[in-house]
Amino acid sequence: MAHLVAPSILSADFANIQRDVEMINKSEADWFHVDVMDGVFVPNISFGFPVIKAIKKHAKKPLDVHLMIVDPDRYITTFKEAGADVLTVHMEACTHLHRTLQSIKANGMKAGVALNPHTNIHTLEDVICDVDLVCLMSVNPGFGGQKFIENTYHKVAVLKAMIKNKKGHTLIEIDGGVDLNNYKKLLQAGADVLVAGNTVFASSNPTETIKQLKLA
Ligand code: DX5
Ligand code: ZN
Q: What is the CATH number of the domain that holds 185?
């Protein structure tokens, strides 16, 4: 499968959100990556349902919603109503992860699990076949524009082997510090989805940068 690129709306210009959504619509990007932060699970607050609904109104590609919030079970149906197509929860925020994943799928969304940089891949072993997407955090979540953590390459390779071993179809997404220097190495290690915030939105030509990230 050709890899996917998901620009992170966190780095967009919120005063010109429609313009930036249209830019992604017209670009070669595959998904919108939408970061929700609650100020409890991570030391930052981003945005909530009104902003997601506003993005959904104009978006012509799927919304990949990354929840950096505690107790995500409370809001699964509300995120569906707001327009989420893929809903990713953090392993570290879920006491009953299996139940949460079933609930996301029962609500008609793809189910994702995100792992913080310190969380071992093997914690996924007994649930991997129920997961549509694993989001490997390659920075500590909370902010865009941080430095990529090199240990991520190793985690991608271990996770890829686990998925192959179980004959699964889980996608591996990399989130944080992805840029034009490291993305090819990540693809070679087994990444399927590249999230890029700062690399896309701080570049002089975001459409062209997306195009470059799509090159294998
Ligand atoms: C970080 C978020 C990321 C962030 C990535 O907590 O989950 O999605 O927007 O931004 P960059 O690509 O700038 O590291
Ligand atoms: Zn994210």
A: 3.20.20.70
Per the structure, the complete domain to which residue 206 belongs is given by: 4-213
* Ligand 1 mutation target, pool 134, 173, 175, most atoms within 8 A of CB: 175
Residue 175 annotated among the catalytic residues of the structure: yes
How many domains does the structure of the chain reveal?
1
- Beta carbon of 203 within 6 Å of any ligand 1 atom: no
**β-strand partners of 89:** 113
Residue 28: which pLDDT band, with cuts at 50, 70 and 90? very high
Instruction: Enumerate the β-bridge partners of residue 64.
Output: 33, 86
Provide the phi-psi class of 112: left if phi over 0, else alpha when psi is between -120 and 50, else beta.
Answer: beta
| Tens-digit pLDDT profile for residues 72-105 | 999 999 999 999 999 999 999 999 999 999 999 9
| Cβ(198) – ligand 1 distance below 6 Å | yes
| Span between the terminal Cα atoms of the chain, in Å | 11
Tens digit of pLDDT for each residue in 187-211?
999 999 999 999 999 999 999 999 9
Q: What is the DSSP letter of 125?
A: T
